[in-house]
Amino acid sequence: xxxxxxAAWSAFIGAIATLTFVAWLSPASVAQEPxxxxxxxxxxxxxxxxxSLDEIAKHNRLEDCWMAIEGNVYDITxxxxxHPAPPSVLQRWCGKxxxxxxxxxxxxxxxxxxxxxxxxxxxxxxxxxxAN
Length: 132
Ligand code: HEM
Fold this sequence. Notes:
The protein is of the alpha/beta class. It is built from 6 helices and 6 strands; from the N terminus they run αβαβββααβααβ. The chain has a domain of about 80 residues: Cytochrome b5-like heme/steroid binding domain (Flavocytochrome B2, Chain A, domain 1, Roll).
């Protein structure tokens, strides 16, 4: 019985040691994945699309709504139906430089951090420098 207990204990310790070793190895491989997967994770001036205000102005409907906010350009169309305020509130900012709308909600209160986070995946490029 003692021998069996010793064998079982050794197997258990061996398993723990193996798992610890594997866990020690894995962060390196995880860390490499994003680099090989995502071609353009951050703002890169060279590869980024830039839009003029004229181009943005073509997307001035709720069914096709782009906004320029603080130098970036966003396609808000997919979010319009989920926005908590009535669509008319958004509509007047579609196709425009809408930083004021985003920062004030039309009555002087900035959107929450969560709202600003929601913008990020909707980003399609930057506002052209000296845009007019
Ligand atoms: C630029 C024009 C916009 C205007 C004028 C505007 C206005 C408003 C108003 C009036 C409310 C409801 C009242 C309130 O919560 O105090 C609201 C709430 C909200 N809006 Fe907007 N909105 C705009 C754009 C956006 C965009 C582009 C997003 C996200 C992609 C967004 C996300 C939200 C969220 C998450 C809320 C809930 C409250 C909060 O988190 O601040 N809004 N907005």
